[in-house]
Amino acid sequence: MADADRDEMLRDMAANRGCRLVKSRKRTPGSGDYGRYGLRDSKSGQDVYGFGDGGLTANAEDIEDYLRGGLRSSWKQSLREAPAVPRPGRREPAKPERKAPEPKPEPEPEPPPQPPPEPVLSVREAGPRDSEAISALLAELGFPTGAADLRRRLPRLRKAGEPPLVAVEEKAVIGCLAWHVTPVLHRPAPVGRVTMMVVAKEARRHGVGAALLEAAEARLAAAGCALIEVTSNIELGGAHAFYRAQGYERTSYRFAKRLKGG
User: Fold this and answer.
1) Which residues of the chain, if any, have pLDDT below 70?
2) pLDDT of the residue at 78
């Protein structure tokens, strides 16, 4: 991750924890606290983490560790405590042997079997039969939703002309995306929005998300949208990098408030 993207992610994470990210003003490597960070309380201005007598003391990983509650440190500690794999000892050189008579040529071996074809990925509209699979995907995303609720919601979205999309590989649903067209007063054309996208953990980084996003963009363009917006949780740094790679830019902050009964 580039320094600018990393700093932006750390600032967002710090703001989400009520803190402000402080970065060293030194510009020369090796001088003072060059490349170091600290955290201050956004309201009181008091030092929270990463400050010492000589200036800032924490690096980027320290700050991310602190904000994520130490998960990264626990992971690294488990790696350090893993037993080392012994290397095989050095073999003594073999003694020269007397040449044996040349063997008769062996028959040509059978050609190896052809590898199985790569699974075909397809994107289609979601239906009630996909409710169980979509329920499992939403649980991975952190939004547990029962299959029965999904069976009631999917027909309503299809009737509204905005059916969610699913990515399918070998008859298994491995990704899902929901989209919406929003008529707005301040723009000449409606705004398209990707309201949710999730790919099964074992299928990520294989083009599934890009295929879903491409299919949604085609539908939103056909609906007359001139702009597409994506909402993504501030904690999902990997998702932010994915959307940037697909040509999306961060343009605003998103604010949310729960209403009574919501």
Assistant:
1) 1-2, 70-97, 233-238, 262
2) 41
Instruction: Report the C-alpha gap between 42 and 153 in whole angstroms.
Output: 41
- Whole-number Å distance between alpha carbons of 213 and 228: 11
75: three-class secondary structure by DSSP: helix
CB 40 within 8 A of CB 19: yes
CA distances from 97 to 93, 94, 100, 102 (A): 12, 9, 9, 14
Residues paired with residue 182 on neighbouring β-strands, in sequence order: 191
Tokens of 3: 């320094």
Helix (H, G, I), strand (E, B) or coil at 98: coil
Q: Is 178 helix (H, G, I), strand (E, B) or coil?
A: strand
Instruction: Give yes or no for a contact between 220 and 181, defined as CB atoms under 8 angstroms apart.
Output: yes
Query: What letter would DSSP give residue 87?
Result: P
Rounded distance between C-alpha atoms, residue 250 and residue 12, angstroms: 12
Amino acid at 244: R
Q: What angle separates helix 60-68 from helix 71-81, to the nearest 10 degrees?
A: 110
The model's pLDDT over 79-96, given as tens digits with 9 standing for 90+, comes to 454 454 444 555 555 566
